[in-house]
Structures are given as C-alpha cells and as structure tokens.
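Recall the central idea of this unit: under ordinary conditions, the amino acid sequence of a chain determines the structure it adopts. In this exercise we apply that idea directly, starting from the sequence alone.
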Amino acid sequence: MAMNGYEKAAIFLSSVGEETASQILKDLDQDIIGRITSYMAKMKRTDRSKVESVFAETLEKVNSGDISHGGGEDYVKKILTKGLGNENAERILEMVSKESPLESLKWVNPKTLSSFLVTEHPQTIALILCLLEAEQAAAVIEVLPEHIRGDVAIRVATTERIPESALIEIEEVLKGQLDIGKDKGKVFHGTKVIAEILNHCERNTEQKILEKIEGQNNTMADAIRELMLVFDDLEKVDDRGIQLVLKEISTEDLTLALKTASDPLKLKIFKNMSQRAGQILKEEIEAKGPVKLSDVEKAQQNIVKIARKLDEDGKIVIAGRGKEQFV
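Accordingly, the structure predicted from this sequence is:
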C-alpha cells in the first residue's frame, strides 16, 4: 500500500534524530504536527526499504527545486548520513543520480506533465501513461484537454506491448535515455492499465472517457468496466449497499460466487442476512460440493454487473473508487 505524506514525514523524522526532528517540527502548523506525530507514535519498527524510499524522494525534491533549503544537496546528504549511515547514504545518492528520465517523472506535478505532453501525439501520451503509476496517470489524464482524453484512453486500452522503437521515441520526447538495460520492449495489458487509471479518476472524468470509448468500441468499453470492479470489491460496499445487492441477486449465483470469496467478504455477506437465511446459505454452499471454476466466475460476474448498475444509479457506494469525498 502506498504511503501518504504524513506517514512519509513520520518515517523521515523518526530517522533523523531528535534534534533535527524538533527543528523541523517547530515550523509546522499544529494540525500537521498532530497528524505526523500520530503516525510516529504508532510506529514500532520501520522497514528499511521504506526509509530509503523516503530519503530518496526527499533528495529528489530538493534537487528538482520542489523543496528549498540553504544547504541543498549537501544538507540532504548530511540528513541521509545521520539517518542511515554513510554507506547507505552514498548508495541512495548514487541511485538517485542514475534515475532515468521516465522514473524522474514521478516527481513532476501532473499539471506540468500534462502541459508538457499535450503537444505530443496521443499515442506517445498513451505510452507514457502506461509507464506511470495508475494514480499519477489518473491525475495527468484528468487535466488533459477533454477532446483528446478519450483517444488517449483507447490507445492505452489497446496497448499490449511497448516495442523498443517506441521506448526510443519516448526517450527522445523526454530528452534523455531510458534505463531499460537489455529489455526488448515492455509487455502490457492495456485494458487493465486504463481500468486502473480510471479507477483513480473522478467519476465525471471516468464516465466521459468511457462514453468516448464506447462510441468507438463497445466491446472494449465493456471489458474495461468489468476490470474496474471485481467481485472482491464488494467488501468495500457498506452494509446498506450489501443489503440492496442481496435483494437483486439469485440464491444460485450467491451460492456459487461465495465458493472462492475471501473470508472478509463472506463475513460481510452473512452479517447482512438474517441468521436463518445465512445458515441455509452455508448449508447450500457445503451441499454443492466441487463446482467448475468457470461457473463460479460467471456467477461472480453476474453479481458484479448488478453491483455496477446500482453503483452507477447512485444507490450504493463502493469505497475507494476514484477520488470522491463523502460526508
């Protein structure tokens, strides 16, 4: 799971020693201090890879000018040495210095990156989005001009492999050299990539892009929608929503679908049924015995279609989809 800013700050401050941490904290707002120290208080042991990741990100932000400090790189090097020791500090400095242009894009503001990409061919934009983390790609696609979003999304969805020649083209666009070693291209499942990107977009953006794709390729749009919501995502639906889903699905589909469901999802389902109905369902699942996996997957997909329709109608809420806030 990705770390949020407060957790990163907590890891950083926990690693640099009391004196340095106190000097940093004294200039922050009380609310921010409270949030950071809350994470610090909960930390018992921090994974070294997380510490190194946080220090590497800090150094990169200083080098890129996102963080200003009189000491610049020398200051961060001192902090790295204080937190991780000289050898590990040198290793991180070397790692950051060798970072490829594409890897360095993760530090670029989405609006800045969008402005940079907007003059490029939609295919080039699509390939670069394929190579970004889904959340960052979503932030970029949201600020692209609306008239090219759909085209870019379709190109992402149809990407199965990025050939070496395309990586060279991206290299030229980024005015640098991609650190791809001996790889002969990169393999992608485009529909899965664009589905993950759209999952992180605001609902309005998601719907407009899907409508654009549907207008050109209805089958592709359906494939993307199926990947945007999977059966296990029902665990994220609140109790009222689960009850609405249960009213719409058949007992046969539910019996089959729960055969391979996760324990937390089973628990949520049974919690939202009467004790008697839950007991009957458990008995039916046991009585079924071995069943074909294809039958289970079909039943799960039937339920997912119903859940997606309820979600689109605004009758249920699937937590974690997009960036909508709820009150």
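DSSP finds 20 helices and two strands in the chain.
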